[in-house]
Write a structure and sequence with these properties.
Blueprint: E1 2-4, H1 5-17, E2 30-36, E3 39-45, E4 49-56, E5 63-68, H2 69-78, E6 83-88, E7 92-96, E8 100-104, E9 107-108, E10 111-112, E11 122-130, H3 131-145, E12 158-161, E13 164-168, E14 172-176, E15 184-187, H4 189-193, E16 202-211, E17 217-224, E18 228-234, H5 238-242, H6 246-254, E19 259-264, H7 265-276, E20 289-294, E21 298-302, E22 309-313, E23 325-330, H8 331-338, E24 345-350, E25 355-360, E26 363-368
Antiparallel strand pairs: 1-6, 2-3, 2-5, 3-4, 4-18, 6-7, 7-8, 9-10, 11-16, 12-13, 12-15, 13-14, 14-26, 16-17, 17-18, 19-24, 20-21, 20-23, 21-22, 24-25, 25-26
Helix pairs in contact: 1-2, 7-8
Length: 372
């Protein structure tokens, strides 16, 4: 089989993302290279998900080989010839490019290893979702989980329903969007990481289940575009799903707060970075809590010890703040949130002595006020 290197390299880059390096077993380190008809399929699995990336061929061909995933994918990335030739003999995959390379085939007993696919036998919902929505979940909701302030397993998961996505730690990220049909699922970070494989294209989403026994049902999902298919088993039960305080988080994000101001993101971020320099790094157990004093036209932000401060003026001409409102916030929490903001101006809602909400577009970040 002869392949143009520019075609196969892009496919290899995509499937490399799906190789689960956290798991070490024959299955998780194996790549299946299989041509069926006019498509060459590169496949990997970690038992929880099965990922298939397709490359269109010039003519139909039959081809099947299973080899070490990292060895094959990294070798292809370093080949500089215009094309490569793949050939299978009794025990090796022979690759011809800048040179000739032999990769041992992987067998199960005496047969070539076939990676076990994940199929959905009982489909309950199928509809189209924009890849932009999937990438927004990866981009925005992941930042909340990176704060790593968790007290229960469900806080490591992504809650997704037909109204949007929610992740929560000490605060929360509420990502508002609409899906065509009602669903309610929890996905882990390994699956969400794979959303980067979808770029500017419609994705067909399918959810369903399979009965493992009389008492056990597996929920499964599939995300499929023209060249990428991800099928996964969701390893959470209804009890965990119902433990997500969905209504409480959305109510906190969407409620009408007493005050609302507009701040320049860069000014706020630069101020926080300067004031964090005064946090005592030798006392790692001390949280960088900071006092924010909101007044009519500006906010004064202090460092942890209230020895240093900066003033930032609002972008909105008039606020409705009549008396000074003081909020204590975690500067690192706020810094992490701002690092993922691309908008120049941010709306900050506050005043209920419980939390501030940073709002921009479809994304709302809840940052709790600290009780001192």
């Amino acid at each position: 089989m002869i392949l143009r290197i520019e075609d196969i390299k892009g496919t290899c880059e995509k499937i490399l993302t799906a190789v689960d390096s956290s798991e070490v077993s024959t299955l998780t380190t194996t790549l299946q290279i299989k041509a069926i008809g006019n498509f060459l399929n590169l496949c990997v699995t970690n038992r929880e998900y099965f990922v298939q990336v397709k490359t269109e061929l010039d003519e139909p061909i039959e081809f099947n080989a299973t080899v070490n995933a990292n060895l094959f994918l990294k070798l292809i990335s370093k080949i500089t010839t215009e094309s490569i030739t793949l050939d299978v003999n009794e025990s090796s995959l022979v690759i011809k490019g800048n040179g000739t390379y032999k990769l041992p085939l992987i067998f199960d007993d005496e047969k070539l290893l076939e990676l076990p696919e994940i199929n959905i036998n009982n489909k309950t919902n199928t509809f189209t979702v924009s890849s932009n929505i999937l990438n927004s979940i990866l981009l925005y909701n992941s930042k909340e989980l990176n704060k790593a302030v968790v007290s229960s397993p469900v806080q490591k998961l992504y809650y997704i329903d037909n109204k949007g996505a929610i992740t929560f730690t000490s605060g929360a990220c509420v990502n508002n969007f609409s899906l065509e049909q009602p669903i309610s699922i929890l996905l882990n970070a390994k699956i969400v990481k794979l959303f980067k494989l979808f770029k500017d294209e419609p994705v067909s989403f399918t959810i369903g289940y399979d009965s493992i026994s009389d008492d056990i049902i597996q929920t499964k999902v599939r995300f499929e575009s023209r060249c990428v298919v991800i099928t996964a088993i969701i390893s959470c039960d209804d009890t965990m799903l119902k433990s997500v305080p969905v209504s409480a988080i959305r109510n906190r994000a969407d409620m009408e707060y007493p005050y609302s101001v507009n701040l320049n993101r860069d000014e706020l971020s630069q101020t926080i970075n300067r004031l964090l320099l005064f946090a005592d790094s030798s006392e790692s157990y001390v949280k960088p809590y900071s006092c924010f004093e909101f007044e009519k036209d500006y906010v004064t932000i202090y460092d942890t010890n209230k020895d240093n401060h900066e003033i930032i003026y609002y972008n909105n001409e008039k606020s409705n703040i009549e008396t000074k409102y003081t909020a204590v916030l975690d500067l690192m929490d706020l810094k992490t949130t701002l690092e993922n903001c691309t908008e120049q101006y941010l709306t900050i809602n506050f005043g209920n002595e419980e939390a501030i909400v940073i709002s921009r577009g479809n994304i709302k970040n809840i940052i709790p006020e600290i009780i001192m």
